[in-house]
Amino acid sequence: MSSRDLVRQLLDPAGDPERVGSYEHFWAETPEIWLAQGYPALPPESDAAPPEEAYVKVPHVFPSQLGQGSVAKPVSPYHVFDYDMHACGGGFDTEPLRAHEEILEESAEWIVKRNGAGATFKYWKHKSGTPEHLDFRMTGRDVWERDYRPHLLQLDRERLRGGAIKGSTLSEDRAERAYAMARGKWIIYGHLFIWEILRWSLGDVCMYESLLLDPAWILDFNAVYTSFFKLHFTALIEELGRPDCIWLYEDLGYKNGLFASPRLLRKLILPYYAELVDFFHAQGLPVLLHSCGNITDALPLIVDAGFDALQPMERKAGCDPFKFAEAYRDRLAFIGGLDVRILESNNRATIRQGVSELVDGMKARGARYFFASDHSITPLVSYDSYRYALDVYREHMRY
Description:
The chain has helices at about 5-10, 30-35, 75-80, 140-150, 170-180, 195-200, 205-215, 215-240, 260-270, 270-280, 300-305, 320-330, 340-345, 350-365, 385-395; strands spanning about 20, 40, 75, 85, 100-105, 110-115, 120-125, 130-135, 185-190, 245-250, 255, 255-260, 285-290, 310, 335, 370. By secondary structure, the chain is α/β, with parallel strands linked by helices. The strands form four sheets. An eight-stranded parallel beta sheet has the order 1-16-15-14-13-10-9-4. α12 links the parallel β14 (about 310) and β15 (about 335). α14 (about 350-365) runs parallel beside α15 (about 385-395). It is globular and about 60 Å long.
């Protein structure tokens, strides 16, 4: 059974998958740190992305094989590990002022930028991390309607060349799609959606105040962006070709629970989730949801919106994949749930116990399950430990 056939079975409540699937996310610097631990690198001549027809066979070398003075660059983990799903783009520009960026301050370690939604963030240059929120111009409905809303009402194909999810271009997305197609992988197009865009446009204070004090503005914002997403995902599919699914990234929770009450989410957010999910379902495309934090209380909303799968089930925030599976195995597939601290222990006995208990426990509960961490692989996980975790998963993956 190919990966595409397997994922199709796993996402189908009536499917009969032969094994547990696999996928993962990584901190950007993790593969770079792993280079010193034997992780494969790109040859020097592969610094630029190869053409689409060559991308189906990405060359690997090891850092020790590079010539003196060469700078090693890691191969993408999605070209090293044999996952069943493969991300192939989707990050079109969602900011009202397309391709807008003002650099306000810069040092060797960080940079302060204002984006096309009028938001100013301070970013680390050389390591991952949540940017510091400094200033937001979209502070009321009048500002939204005057300065930003008009830019979001029409299709703009130039937006397809990259945006809120930085670092990809259409040519690179086509190459990743060719790579996935050649290997029979399940093709993902992914993006943020309204909750994240609200927060990144209004800032936390204005957003949470407006959810309560000006819900009509929030409803209009969400309606405009839902139509915007329909237009631009349609254009993206025309440009790149049809994916196998859509993945939306929306962090509804933190370690202590949801950022907003289920009642408020049901009133202001759920209708637009359901509208976009229905839009993709009408095209035969499943829709997967990523949400960090403890989202236990949001599970009924996620199910009612029609999402087909949930990721990452963050254990360290209080999510319980076993309880999720017991309650919703007929409505959702599940991705993740391995407490990354188990991997960060870099102890083989601890990793074996954690991986086997999770995979066997999800199978025992009849879950349609993809093995992955409960968020992403951090630099504290060694390359050897991660490979060992995959070995243990493979020992237990058969249903």
